[in-house]
Amino acid sequence: MSKWIMDIQALDPEDNEVVLRFSDSAFIDDDDNYYDNRLEQAALFTNQAFTGAVLQGSRSGFGEAVLINTDGALNELVDYAVDGRGLSLSLEDDGTITKYIQATALRLVDDNNKIRVILRDPQANIDEPHPLDVFAGTNVLPAGVEGTSDDIKGSKKPKVFGKVRSASPLLVNTSKLIYQVSSLDADVVAAYDRGASLTRGANYPDLATMESTAPDAGQYRTFQGYFRLGSSPVGTVTCDVDSSANAGDVFKQIAIEASITVEAADLAPANAIGEVGIFLQDDTTTAALLDLVANSIGFYWYFNTNNVVRLLPLSAPATEDFEVNASQIVDITRESTGAGSNGLPLYQVRVLADKIETVQTDLAGSVSATTVARLSAEYREAKFTNSTVKARHKLSEELVITSCLRSLDDAQAVAETLGALLSVRRDKCAVTARLDDQFDIGRVVRVVTPRLGYAEGRNMIILGHTLDAKRRRVTFNLWG
Fold first, then answer.
1. Which of 111, 146, 175, 355 could form an SS bridge with 142, CB 3.0 to 4.6 Å?
2. Torsion angle (degrees, nearest 10) of CA 20, 22, 28, 32
3. What is the DSSP letter of 430?
4. Helices in 180-328 by DSSP H: which ranges?
5. Sheet of 219-223: strands edge to edge?
6. Phi and psi (nearest 5°) for 235?
7. 223: Cβ contacts below 8 Å, ≥ 6 apart
């Protein structure tokens, strides 16, 4: 007989790392670990991929498991720390263990002889501000690059991911006109005063040389994410900055800074879409940064059951991984037949790209008319339009993606790819079925039922699911 087994990472009252093990039927694993038979509800857990503006989807993961505590043996858990730690739920069947859920424990709640384990998906740990250093304010002018207690002490140090244009750096040494645009190693490829280009001098070999040696008048010289001016600016100082910019590489870099592993095989397809750029200056969650990159390139992401992030392109469903037929289906509903907020196919996709970080109108007279026009608008726009869809569906909508793509050509390619994908019928369904096959977000299921016109079967991608472990049922959120 199959049984559910649950492992919860925890700290005991003495701060020792322990694993709490429970099951819905007494079980001892191959390592002689005993699983206490206390699972009343193995898990009622919902997990969703982030599809952002593309499919009007939100990223989420929540639920709970219930432990029996009629004898009070679990009362001691009040002194255990489980919050923010891993929890897995697996099904043991004749010696084979299959993991169905990898989640994060939020807290334990004592409830009438039961202990409720409140769950979140692993993303709960990255719904926190992405790590940014702060300026110490320790300059003893004219020395130092940390600002003073009177200017930038306590301010966040900016970071550049990829390539950014017309960014406003922070003045970290007012005496020597030293600026910082990124706490990460990056190349300041251009610097401007009121939009007029400054001449680039030789790079500094180290921080000490940058502090000791001024550039010539009208020049700037760089060291990593810093640069120094040779003369006082007359207006707003901005700069262009380059670092590794392929979309997949930037996604991975952001994830690594938050101690997250990304599936290596997913990076090349994302890199092929193009280069991106993010200028991070204020508190933004790690999840929001990952969302921005994925949404910009028409991808979605999620944590798999191995606690690894998958980054996948939104595409038409391919060959099915498994089938759900009428004998397994408990309930099925179709929510929409298109990606618009009104459930209709889209007639237009607009992608805003090539962001200017600092919009300027007060520019030097030497700045060209082309540059004046470019610096007056935050984004440029790529667009796909299908007028036939608009003629057929008079209420069809457009999709607007505010992207971090650097190239307008890449943005146009994304607009056309998504436009072709979303300007035709794409069903969004909820299917509740008896649990027979292992499932995960991103897999393709073939739904075969006489209902909804699916008698011949329709292939659909799993973009979310709710597992009711006690009843051995799963509700799939499907698209395709």
1. 175
2. 0
3. E
4. 207-212, 247-257, 267-273, 286-296
5. 170-173, 178-180, 226-229, 219-223, 199-200
6. -155, -150
7. 203, 204, 205, 206, 207, 209, 210
CB 240 within 8 A of CB 166: yes
Q: Give the pLDDT of the chain (480 residues) as one tens digit per residue.
A: 789 999 999 999 999 999 999 999 989 999 999 999 999 988 888 888 888 778 866 556 688 999 999 999 999 999 999 998 999 999 998 888 989 888 889 999 998 899 999 998 777 778 899 999 999 999 999 999 999 999 999 999 999 999 999 999 999 999 999 999 999 999 999 999 999 999 999 999 999 999 999 999 999 999 999 999 999 999 999 999 999 999 999 999 999 999 999 999 999 999 999 999 999 999 999 999 999 999 999 999 999 888 899 999 999 999 999 999 999 999 999 999 999 999 999 999 999 999 999 999 999 999 999 999 999 999 999 999 999 999 999 999 999 999 999 999 999 999 999 999 999 999 999 999 997 767 789 999 999 999 999 999 999 999 999 988 888 899 999 999
Q: Is 154 exposed, middle or buried (0-12, 13-18, 19+ CB in 10 A)?
A: exposed
Domain ranges in the chain are 3-120, 123-294, 322-337+426-479, 348-422
- Residue type for position 464: G
The residue ranges of DSSP E strands in 337-373, in sequence order, are 348-353
The residue type of 144 is: G
User: What is the chain's percent helix, strand, coil content, to nearest 5?
Assistant: 15, 45, 40
Residue the block writes with tokens 């943005």: 411
Please state whether beta strands 196-197 and 277-280 pair in parallel, antiparallel, or not at all (unpaired).
Answer: unpaired
The answer to whether the CB of 163 falls within 8 A of the CB of 245 is: yes
CA distances from 118 to 43, 85, 279 (A): 10, 12, 36
Phi and psi at residue 405, to the nearest 5°: -65, 140
Distance, in Å, from the CA atom of 32 to the CA atom of 34, rounded to the nearest integer, reads 6
Backbone angles phi, psi at 147, to 5 degrees: 70, -175
